[in-house]
Structures are given as structure tokens and as C-alpha cells.
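Quick one - inputs below.
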Amino acid sequence: MATYILRRILISLPIILGITVIVFMLANMMPGDAVLAMISSDTPLEAELIKLRQGQLGLDLPLYEQYGRWLGNLLRGNMGYSFQTGEPVFEMIMRRIPATLELMGFSLLISVILGVTLGTISALKQYSALDYGLTLFGFTGISIPDFFLSLILIFVFALKLDWFPTSGMVTAGEPFSWADNLHHLFLPALALALVRTAVFMRYTRASVLEVINDDYVRTARAKGMTEFVVTARHILRNALIPVITVIGINLTVLFAGSVIIETIFQWPGIGMMFINAISLRDSPVIMGYVLFSAFVVLIANLLTDVTYSWADPRIRYE
Amino acid sequence: MKIRMLFLLVALFAMLLAGCAAPAAAPAAPAAEETAPAAEEGAPAAAEAAGPAGVFRSPMRTGCAVGTLWTTCGRRLDEAFLQGLAQVKWTADGVEPLLAESWEMEEGGKAFVFKLREGVTWHDGTPFTADDVVFSFNIFANPAVGSTYAGKLSDVVGYDEFQAGTATELAGVTKVDDMTVRVELKSPAPLWVELQQISISILPNHILGDVAPDQLRTHEYWKQMVGTGPFVMTEFVDDQYITGVANENYFLGKPKLDKIIFQIYADTTAILNALEAGELDATPYEGGGIPLDQVQRFEAMEHLTVLGNMDAGLPTFIMLNLEDPDFAKPEVREAMMYAIDRQTIMETVRMNYGKISNTMFPAEWARPAELNEYAYDPAKASELLAAAGWDPNRKIDFLYYYNDQVNKDIVVAIQAYLAAVGINIEPRLVDGAGFNQAIVDKTFQAGYAANGQGLDPSIGANITRCGTQRAMSYCNERVDELFGLGLSEATRDARAPYYQEISTILNDELPKLWLWYEVRPMGFNKRIVGLGEHFSEQPLLMFDLPIYNEIHTWYTE
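Output:
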């Protein structure tokens, strides 16, 4: 197993390097640069000052040289400094990661638990009114883009009903409290979770239906086990294997989705940082984020495979 | 083990249910108290008008929190934490002293001698002196710092040498004694204090004096600013908020508010939602204010004072690349003016917010009574185009960067009007950086833009002066000369004839196709007394006007 993991990591390194090259090129193909992004139409900057700033940031160098510099620094353990604030990129990411993890973690928790539970119920009560209702919910959930769902949630629960704040992570300027934090977390986490819940539910339903009539399930029933034990130990354990893969794949989708959700809800995580960095052409920050998300994808895929073998002892990696 | 997994699942589900209930239930308690009276009246207005007593919650755009030296919107923090020598008055008719008690002009504006205010201390207790002023002017002008505002000091003796690297400081800025600073200019500029100096915030020499200029940007100071302003910075949380508490020793008197919170937002919609929900007390200058199609909805909200027709001091125009042989022809530009029915756009899409313009300056005193109005006349436009030999098959790349619905609709209307006379523009939405890049690259053909006019029309030279990037190759030496003459006069009456002549030339020659003067609709929560009142007294809102001027007099009810 350990060699397998090590091999996977080693294979990933050139892939990550390739990703950084592509993203660096793409980031630099966007019109404008960090200096031009800072100029507002209210106060045009003198041409000489633009040149001066571009020189200070190394933006006047050829692209391959800029990339070489970035990579050289990275190999020395330095992810560079933000063009806009001058802060070290690594610190910027580390300071914002807890917020993103909180949002993602909470969403994943909601969606896995709700999705698996509802999916199982849906399958066990196949073709019942409940099943049809949940199926409808599932298709609705899969079809609604999460940014649109966010706007609806804000409109209904924050503006009309006034149950939740419209944005932010805590009430600004107040001493930190978990109640306040969770109050702010609820809407963005729900927006991020609902789509995923629907996906997990549909997969669980299909997967449970596949095994529900298998011989070993009938044998378990014949042994006189209670329906609950049969469902939990015999049906779910086998049905969840494909679902684990879907959850693993969705980890990365969740990570991507949090970019939009964070921006809409002003959730101060790395997703919002990334969007701001793009509009300000802050390429060290863009690169930092991309590198980080490449690692997240790598780790999510690895975890999926490892969990897979844990859930199904027949699967072994060499 | 399998049983354990099941238990885990059930336990997790239970936790989730609890988790769902907890955030909804726990904070609901205080929220319920706030909404209680509102629920009885059947309207949520009371909750939105409420807010923490003595606290002003101001919006702030992400990207603005990087320190006063590097971004024009960064100075929104300065009005609370730092101060300059003098600032523009609310009423936009002159300057009032801040850190300088008074100043004297020598030789008609060739030099200024600032007498500094006695007894001012930095937030850490250190006395404020002339060393701070000399240091700050040098930091702003230092090429190694790369300040966006460096150009504001280009009139000072020694600026060019400093930029070129042949001098290590501004020769024109000298300390006369501990409480007096003299600034010498290259040529007389009687309006220098009012137009240029106001952009320079005074920074603490005793904290930043030893920092290498190229290290200044990364210095921790920007997140724990020590200033002389009405509030003392207490907390800086990235992407979330910046807080300050009242400065007991503020030289204009202790602020009536206890606390200011700059809440940081990445987009306008979130700001408007927060304003509507009563989580925020003002709209920011940056971002254009309340979109025109939403002004009426906001006006109906009882907890807000909405100033829908606030003059933004901002002429909106179609910008053309005059190096293009087609656009270089005056008849083509005139034809485009006649082809667009600005009056109808104003009445329909813009719902009458703003004023139609026929030249650059929003300030009435800078315009003559008579200007060519270019009233809608498509027949005349077609004639002019035919005379100019316009090719109706030509496609024009047309850039714009305002992405709100009203401005998108306006661009569509312009496209339709121009197409009707045979001018085919292909609108392309870009962001600010993309727009600027096209100008720098000279790939720019045409676009929809606006340009902030400062306290005095002279700033308009930024888009017309020969050789300036945004002039797009327009050059009329008489205009440049007139701008210079305007700056040499100290009074508005003496300047008016020069600017009026410029107005007439720009109306005739159409280096830009003038559309209208923009408004910037602002909304303020009525719970902050002084805020909405101040803004309603203000004739126009401009980027270099301090927006929270006299904030120490505001209070909550």
C-alpha cells in the first residue's frame, strides 16, 4: 500500500508541473497586468509610472523568464509575494484555508449524511410517493446551479425572513463566538451542500437497488436478521463502494464550487482570494491557489482509492 | 466493527440534525428580540434601522485595504486613521486645514509654507512634527516605493531628479523648524494645496523612517496603522473587516462615535444586500453606488436616506482611437454624435438619472452658456458619413467594462442607433485591466468609458493633453495652454474664461463623443446621524474628495 501511495505521488509531480505551466500561460494571456488592474478610470496613471511599477514587479521580463523565476522560488520553498499587497502567498493561503475547510467540511457532512440516508430510504421504498418526491428533489437539486441557489437563499432567508445574515463569516468587530460563526455559515454551507446531496442521493439509490436483491441479502434475511441490520451491514456496506468514488470526485467539485459560493457570500476563504486575484491580475496568488488546488485534487483522489480498498477488502493495490 | 460503522453513521446523522437546529435556534434568540416590534407592525423596517449603538459600519472594497500609497481607494481608510495637511471641504469649495494649522503662499504660488498644528500626537503618543511631513512627501515621491500618487508631487522642485535617480530626496521640501515646512514648486501653482497636496497622507517618521523604501509595502504597519486621525486602528482581519476606536486625543475633538468598522466586500451585490438588510450603514464610493434600475426600490426602504441624483462629477463618453484614419475625420465623429438619441436613452434606460453633456466639464461655471447640442438627427448623420466616405461594412471592436444591467442596455442602445446609420460596433465586455491593456497596446478602436473630474476642471487634462495615453492621440496645443493658464489663477472667477474656452473647443472638435454626466446614487442608514446629512449638502461626489470628512461629528441615535 505504502509503495502504491508513493508511486501515485511521484506520478503526480510532473502532472502538477504541467498544470502550473499551462495556468501560468493562461493567467498571462488575460489582457492587462497587475499594474494596469490597479488603475481606476478616475485617476489615470502616467505612462512612466506604469513602466516603473511593471519593472519593479518583473512584469517586463519575457514570460518564460517570469515562469522560471516563479519555479525557482518554489523549489526553494517560496511561493512568491502578492503583486497587490506584497504579502507572502503561502501565508495568504494558510490564513484563509481554515475558512474554506470549515465551509467545505460542513457542506460535505450535510450532503453525505443527507444524501446517503435519503438515497437508501428512496431505494428501500422504491416507487412509493416518498421515492417519487425524493427523485423530484434530486433532479431539481442536480439541475440548479449553486450560484442561483445562493441568490434564492439570500433573498428568502436573509432579506425577506431576516433569519440569517446576508454575507460574511462573523459579525464584523464582535468578539468571536461559535454561535455567530455557525449562524453565518448556515446559508453558504446549505447552498454548497444541496446540489451535492442530490447527487449522492441518486447514486446511493441506484447502488442500493443494485444489491438489494442479491443472494447474500436474501441469505441475511433468511438467517433471521432484523431488517435494520440487513440494510446497514449487508446492503449499505456493499452499495456504498461506488458512492465513495462519487464522494471522492465530488470533493474536488466541492472545492471548485466553494469559489463561487465564497464570492457570493463574502466568505473569506481561498476561493474569494482567488477570484480577487484574477481580477487584479495577481499572478503569484493565482499560481499559489492553482498549486494548492492541484494538491487537493491529488490527495482527494488518493484518499478515494485508499478508502475504496478499506470498504471493499477484495480491492488491493500493489 | 460493522456495527460500529453503523453507529457512526447514526451518530453523524444525529449530529447533523443537531447542527442544523443549533445555528438556527441559538442566534435566533437575539434576532427575535430585534424583530419583535417589527413583526407586530408587519414590516421588518425596525430591525434594519437598528444596529450597534455608537458604531459606524462602513463598506470597503477588497483590494482597497493595501495602504494609502498603492491604490487610489486605499485612502478611504486615511480619513479615519491617517490625516493630511489639509482636506477639501464637504461643500467642495476650497480646503480646510487639518494637520497644518495654516499656510502661506509665496510668489503667487511658487512656494508654500505650512505652519503645523501644535500639540498633535500620533496614536502611540509620539508628538507630530515637521520630520513626519518631510518624510511623507519623500516617501510618496520615492521611485523605489512606486506609489500611485507619486505624480501628485510632480510640481515639486527636485521631483524629476528623484525619479531619474540623480537625487535621493525631494530638494523642494524643507524643514524650516520643528513646526514649519516649506514646499517649493517648479512654477507658480496657486491651487497646488487644493489639487495636489490633498492626496498626500502624513505617515509616522518614527515608525517607518528606518524602513527601506522597497520593503515598505510588506511592512506590518499597514495592518496596524499608527496615525493622527479620529480613530485608532484596533483590528485588521483579511478579507473581513478593519476596526478602529475613537481617538480620545483627536485634534478636532474626540469623535462622538465609539467605533468604526470597515466591512470588506468583493462585490456590489453583497454590499447592496447588506445595506438592505441593515448590516451596513453606507454605500461605498468605489463600485458606482446603487445601480440606476434599483434606486427606486432602495428609496422605498424606510431605514435609508437615498441620494439618487448625486452628481458623480464624471463625464461618460465614447472613446475613439484618433489614430484610426476613419475616426480622425471630424465628420465621422460628428455623425456619431447626431446618430445617437441621447435624450431617449436618458429618459428610458437611465430613467432620467444624470444630465446630457456636450463637453467634458461637469462643473457649470466651467462651461459657456452656448454649446452645440448635437440633437438627434440620423439623416444628418448619414449625410456626414457619406461625405466622409464611411465604409458601412466596417466592424468596430467596441470595449466597455461596466457590467451592470443599465450600462449593458445603454451599450445595446448605442449599438442599435449607430447601426441605423451604417456604423457597426461589436461590443465586448472586458474588465478594467483589459480595457487599460488595449489602450497601452494601441489595439483600442472604440469604447464606452468615463473619467473622474476632480475638484477643479484642470484634472480633465488627463484625457486631452497632447501625448497622454487617454487622449488617444488627440492634440490641441491651445487646449494645453488654456489648462496651464487656468492653473495659474487662484480664483474661480479668473479661471472660468479659460475653462469655458476649452469647453467650446472640446464641444467642436469632439475628441470624445460626450454622452452625459454620471450620477452615483448613494444610500445611508438613517441611524448614523450626520452621514446622510453631510452627503445631501454635498454638490458633487468626486474621487479625490474625502468621503468621511468631519466623521468625528457623526453619532448614532
